[in-house]
Write a structure and sequence with these properties.
By secondary structure, the protein is an all-beta fold. About 0% of the residues lie in helices and about 45% in strands. It has no helices and 13 strands. Strands 4-5-6-7 form a four-stranded antiparallel sheet, with no helix packed on it. Strands 8-9-10-11 form a four-stranded antiparallel sheet, with no helix packed on it. Strands 1-2-3 form a three-stranded antiparallel sheet, with no helix packed on it. The two termini are about 20 Å apart.
Length: about 170
């Protein structure tokens, strides 16, 4: 399991515990009944303490693709310029930074991905410049993305999406 490793035990002002976060790794040997902490991923893009949030991983054509929010530095109030970082790897420990994904704005967070029956990939994510609503984009290769101009989930601001399959239905 890969997750945002909050710094909840850090004595810090306001929401600083939400920044400077790494992507934590835990494993289970009994189908999720209990978990063992394994450490954090090394996802350095630039030097210093930086912030990583909300990882999502897919396996395609023999390699893993990690999409994760990246924010330079640590803040004690909500802010910064989040970018969607794309990494690839042959295993779940060693990652190569590929690029920042261009989506509907330069401030997107919380990606979730599914491969559609057509073979195309769909990404749902939150766009903070549009009131923190859910947008979506599609790709044939997980590299180039075509953004839908309309929200996937509009209305008031909400938390990041998580797409899943249930029976024959794909939902977000």
């Amino acid at each position: 399991m890969l997750y945002t490793q909050r710094r909840a035990n850090v004595d810090a002002a306001d929401v600083a515990y939400c920044y400077g976060t790494a992507i934590g790794v835990a494993s289970s040997h009994n189908n999720g009944e209990s978990w063992e902490y394994r450490g954090t991923l090394k996802l350095d893009i630039e030097r210093g303490m930086n912030t990583f949030w909300a990882p999502d991983i897919v396996f395609h054509n023999g390699q893993y693709h990690l999409f994760v929010v990246y924010i330079p530095g640590v803040r004690n109030h909500w802010g910064g310029k989040p970018k969607m970082a794309h990494y690839t790897g042959k295993n779940l420990w060693d990652w190569q930074f590929k690029r920042f994904i261009q989506l509907s704005s330069d401030e997107v967070i919380d990606a979730t991905l599914l491969q559609l029956p057509t073979g195309r990939w769909r990404m749902w994510y939150k766009d903070q410049t549009r009131g923190s609503i859910t947008m979506m984009a599609e790709s044939r290769d997980l590299e180039s993305w075509q953004v839908s101009p309309e929200p996937a989930i509009g209305g008031k601001a909400h938390e990041g999406p998580k797409a899943f399959r249930f029976g024959g239905w794909t939902g977000c």
